[in-house]
Amino acid sequence: MVKVYPDRAWPAFLRVVGDLSAVIWSAGWAVLGWLIYKTVMGLEVIADGIANTGKTFNDWIDAFRHAIPGGIPYLTQFLLDTANALQKYSGDPLVQAGHNIHDAIFKLAIVLALLVVVPPILLVLLPYGTWRWRDMREIGAALAFVRIASVTGRADQARAVLAFRAVTTLSFRQLMSASPDPVGDLTERRYERLASAMLKRAGLDPGRLAPSDLPELPPHRRR
After folding, report:
1. I need a surface site. Which of 61, 62, 94, 166 has the fewest CB within 10 A?
2. Considering the domain boundaries, does residue 68 fall inside one?
3. Range 102-114 average pLDDT
């Protein structure tokens, strides 16, 4: 079971701020990567210029080839061979070079953008995302624990479990803030304050664990 945000307003607000900060951080670096990509891709005009120059040469050579008079022994073939040689060593290489440079610029733009964007995003999202996933699962598990106890009518037993867990997991400062006498609460089976502190730490409203309908026994009758 997963619960995205705690019941209490302040812890939920802090997590919302953290989520928004992570999203803004990632979006900001993504925009920067896009700008780097577009900037590098701006160099493709050089590649296009080289390819267009080659195409222009080929157009001139084609025009020259069509202008060659036919039927002249040796001269016609010589001129055709010359036109083919010019296309092979001038126009075609320029066109090919333009395409190669264009591909290289595209790959460079992708690599640079990824190198700039991915590390800072992963540096934040991996630890924060891992923590948030564990936090959501922990809150969800606590909610499932409370719901089962409430549905089965074992709220008192669940409160006792939470009280003992509070003593074993809360810091001394948190423990003494929850109760001025934690040991006395456990001994006298006054679980309410410790259980509430544990539920608050788990991100739940203590009111989710319905109070018992039975009156609490005095200390001398709890044996």
Report:
1. 62
2. yes
3. 91
